[in-house]
Design a protein that fits this description.
single chain; alpha/beta; Arc Repressor Mutant, subunit A; D-Maltodextrin-Binding Protein, domain 2; 8-stranded mixed sheet; 10 strands
Length: 315
């Protein structure tokens, strides 16, 4: 039985040469594909040159690595065992290189963020990212422009939506749930009792820019469908282009807003807002997405940022 350490023994204590290391990597690639042709293409060698390298390696370490057949190759038992060792080693080397590269990430990352997400979630946390990556420069713009209009002006867009975009990658990094919210004072003044029909005597606060091309009542309609309810015509409507402003208006007794839990949770915890019609419900497919072009390779800066927002979504 042979393992990776046996290579050193077969070399009689001599240090492994650079050419042997090179041939070991060539063996690793061939073992991955079990094809000299595919491995040769990856290594930019001819199949005969690659075969020559493997033969030299087998001769040097005195271990047969492959059984060769007319149309295929197969790892020997010893070759399979050495491949397993190399697989772990090269994976660890790759991780170490990537960790080192990511720890030194620097340069400018252009973000475009929906206003409520920026104000209530990103900005209160951004110091954590900066402390871990002091050379990373964030260029943050906030607004409600359509994804199509800003896709080439930003490295990544953070938005609230169903995550469906043509020619764009979208990664869900944080789920969301919703419920109507209002202040206790408004609840008492309107003499509410938790019946949805009471909306007919209330002011409803709409985020008219919840996502691209959303109707004014889009979030309300999602919640109503999830609860299998019908909403009567409200007495009065007030429209905003920002879910955070809707929540702020609700805190200040202006009416009932559709509250996204991530945005209003601190106001719920403090007692500034209550949920007059029951607890929060999850809305299928809707949440917070990181959106970026499909044809653009993810830079180290973008990889670090995406990893960080996924990590922060648990807070």
């Amino acid at each position: 039985m042979l393992d990776g350490s046996s290579i050193s023994n077969r070399l009689d204590g001599r240090p492994i040469s650079i050419s042997t290391y090179s041939n070991l990597y060539a063996f690793y690639v061939v073992a991955r594909y079990l094809s000299f042709k595919q491995a040769a293409d990856e290594l930019c060698l001819t199949s005969s040159a690659l075969s020559h390298r493997i033969s030299n390696l087998e001769r040097e370490i005195e271990i047969k690595l492959f059984d060769r057949y007319p149309r295929r190759v197969q790892l020997t038992e010893d070759g399979s065992r050495i491949f397993d060792v190399l697989k772990i080693s090269f994976t660890q080397i790759g991780s170490a290189i990537q960790d080192s590269a990511l720890s030194k990430v620097s340069g400018r990352l252009r973000l475009y963020v929906r206003p409520s997400l920026a104000g209530f979630w990103l900005i209160p946390r951004v110091h954590k990212l900066q402390s871990k990556n002091p050379s990373l420069m964030l260029d943050i713009k906030v607004g409600n422009a359509s994804i199509e209009d800003i896709r080439y002006e930003s490295d990544v867009i953070l938005t609230y939506s169903d995550g469906i975009y043509q020619d764009m990658n979208s990664e869900l990094f944080m789920n969301e749930s919703m419920a109507p919210v209002c202040s206790s004072k408004y609840y008492d003044e309107m003499r509410l009792s938790g019946n949805i029909d009471e909306i007919s005597k209330c002011t409803i606060l709409f985020d008219a820019a919840a996502w691209d091309n959303a109707t004014s009542d889009a979030e309300w309609q999602l919640w109503l469908r999830a609860k299998s309810l019908q909403m009567p015509e409200p007495r009065h409507v007030m429209k905003f282009d920002n879910a955070g402003l809707c929540a702020l208006a609700a805190v200040n007794h202006a009416g009932i807003s559709m509250g996204r839990e991530r945005i209003v949770r601190s106001s719920i915890a403090s007692g500034d807002l209550i949920t007059p019609f029951g607890d929060f419900v999850s809305i299928s497919n809707y949440g917070y997405y990181a959106v970026y072009p499909k044809k653009v390779e993810r830079s180290a800066r973008l990889r670090v940022f995406l990893d960080w927002i996924h990590e922060q979504s648990g807070d």
